[in-house]
Structures are given as structure tokens and as C-alpha cells.
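Re-run requested by the PI after the first attempt was lost when the workstation crashed. Everything re-entered from the original request form. Ligand of interest: flavin-adenine dinucleotide.
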Amino acid sequence: MTLFLRPTIYRNKVNFHKFHQYSTKSNTLKKLRIQKFIITGSTLFATGSIFYFFINNDDTYKSFASFSLIPVKSTISSDKFTATPIHQIIPQSKTTSIFRLKLSAPLQEPFPVSSCVHVKDPSLQIMREYTPISPIVKNDELLYIDLLVKRYENGQVSRYIHGLSVGDLMEIRGPVITFQYRENMYKALGMICGGTGITPMYQIIKHILNTPSDKTKISLIYANQSIDEILLRKELDILSKKHPDQFKVYYTIDNAPSSSSWNQGIGYITSEMIKQNMPPPSSSSLSNIDDKNSNKDDDNSILILVCGPDGLMKSISGRRARDMSQGRLRGLLKKLGYNENQVFKF
Ligand SMILES: Cc1cc2nc3c(=O)[nH]c(=O)nc-3n(C[C@H](O)[C@H](O)[C@H](O)COP(=O)(O)OP(=O)(O)OC[C@H]3O[C@@H](n4cnc5c(N)ncnc54)[C@H](O)[C@@H]3O)c2cc1C
């Protein structure tokens, strides 16, 4: 900002100097003082108006911000919807694509973990939550937001989103925190999800594995209809290979595939799959985790996160209550001895 103001101030200084040089009489001096006052006032007012115009006009703001004269303001807000252009659409399966949105200026930091954004269908004025899968970690590109969106045949907002093309605007608002994660909050996190329920899990997984001081162990059971429908599989496999002692993933698909090379689960998630892959309700059997980093209360040293379609929620943990509170714990997790403090439903 100082750079921006300097030429104007400098010009005025020269002019005042000139006035002083040529005036001798006191009434002339008085006049000059008034002129000086008026000119200084007008200069400040004009500069202020230009500055106000720039920060309140998104298009001009962009080029203004590129000179780094003022701190870059957040390009999306939690209070109001911002029309954000779709930069790219990357198909992931028959029904699901990544919608990459381009912001007018980079975010100052990655999204909090875990958080979602609201997307609005402007014609129907309805909105739904979507969980950005980037930017989540420091090295993510802060100029883009990636939303992994599944299209439901009769779904209002997901169908609207899938009807958009590159260059169209999507109205988004956020971020909105859904589950407040803190480093080493638990000894172990279990995750059970289906379909696009992977998105909040992926946010947390990526965040933990990119934080070397976070020693939390993560195990994931991920259910899908078929091998082709497994979302983010390549990314998950790379992460589990890179962090074999910290992150394990187990896939299950509804029906047996024709290829015999499939050695993961077949069918809906069962008690057996949970017992074999999730941290047990009593964490005393968890070893080699630095105790000083974790919650001392044994019951609270593990947490199972659950996210997915209605049927999966009902079978694994019970659904959330109508008022969106966690509701009673039911389903397989209840039968296996987990308590309400050990389960979080997205
Ligand atoms: C915190 C949070 C994060 C989320 N993150 C993601 C994400 O990252 N990606 C993602 O894809 N989704 C995510 N979701 C789900 C998303 O918000 C929407 O619920 C989803 O896209 C469906 O919305 P819709 O408007 O398209 O469907 P809706 O209109 O709400 O319909 C939902 C379902 O009901 C069915 N349905 C609609 N009308 C009828 C009817 N009359 N009779 C019978 N069935 C009907 C539809 O076919 C569909 O299966 C998230 C949800 C939450 C709460």
C-alpha cells in the first residue's frame, strides 16, 4: 500500500513547497494553509476511495492483489456463497467425478480437518454438503478446491452439479468444520465408509500422514459396489504402501469380481471384517504407540469414524438423530462392544 500511495504524496509535497516559496504576506499564508488542508484532505479521501473500490471489487482485486500491496483476502467465505468457476472435471467412475474449482486468489491455508463446503443449486435455492479432498495439506495447490461428487439419479443437487461444464460457476460457501481433529488425539483411528463417504476419511488420512509428529494409527474399511467404483483407490494404495506401519486399508465389494486376483472382502461389511481390521473397543491391546502423545483414558484412546449411505450407517452404527446430533449407537459397532464415545458418525 505504501508503494501505491507514495507518488501522490510526493507530488503534493512538491506543490506545498512551491506555495511556501512564493508567499510573503500573512493573509496569503492563511489562504495557503486552507488550500493545503483541502488538498491533503482530498488526497486522503481519493486514495481511500480507490483502495476501498479495489478491495470490494473481485475482478480488480485479483490484479491488485498480485502486486502484494495488501494481504490476500480469503476467496471463499463461510457466510456467503461465492460463484467459483469449474476449472476441470475429472471422471472417477460411472457416477462420480472430481470437480476442480479455481479460486480468484490462493487460500491462505489448507482447509481445517475435517470440514466441508456447502454447494447451492441457485434455481431451487437448496444446498448440500461436500467434503473437499484438497487443499488439505501444506503442499496442496491452494488455488484449487477439489470436490468428489457422486451423481444420484433422483438427487437434486448432485444432478445439478453433474449438469455443469468446465467454465460454469458453482456457488460454494465454507469451510464448515464437521469433526475437529487434533494431532495425536487418539492412539488409533478406525474408519468405516462406503462410496463418497471416503471424502472426510481421505481428508483426515492425508492430514495425519503428512504430519510426521502425528503417530496415530489408521485402519480403513472401504465398501463399494464394484472394483471400478472404488474411489481414490490409487491414492489410498500409494499412502498405505508409503506408511505400512501407520495406515492399513481393506476394501470390500458387493459381488465377487470375475477376475480371481481379488483378495479383499466380498459382500457388505460384517462383524468379522470389523474385528479383523478395526482397533478393538478396549485399546489395551494396542502397542508401540507413544503414550505421552495420546489420550490417557483407555476408552477414549480409539475412535471409529463412520460415513456412507443410509443403509451402511444403519447397519454399522445407526444413523445420526433427526436434529443432526450423533444419536444412539446401534448396529454392528454396538454389538461388538464399542461405546458412544468411541464412535463418530459423519
Ligand atoms: C458432511 C457431509 C459431507 C458430504 N460430502 C460429500 C462428498 O464429498 N461427496 C458427495 O458426493 N456427497 C457428499 N455428501 C452427501 C451430499 O451432501 C448429498 O447428500 C448427496 O450429494 C445427495 O444430494 P442430492 O441433493 O443430489 O440428493 P437428494 O435430493 O438429497 O436425494 C438423496 C437420495 O435420495 C434419493 N431420492 C431423492 N428423492 C427421492 C424420492 N422422492 N423418493 C425416493 N428417493 C429419493 C435420491 O436418488 C438420492 O439417492 C456429504 C454429506 C454430508 C452431510
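Saved to the shared folder this time. The chain has three domains: 2-65, 82-177, 188-345.
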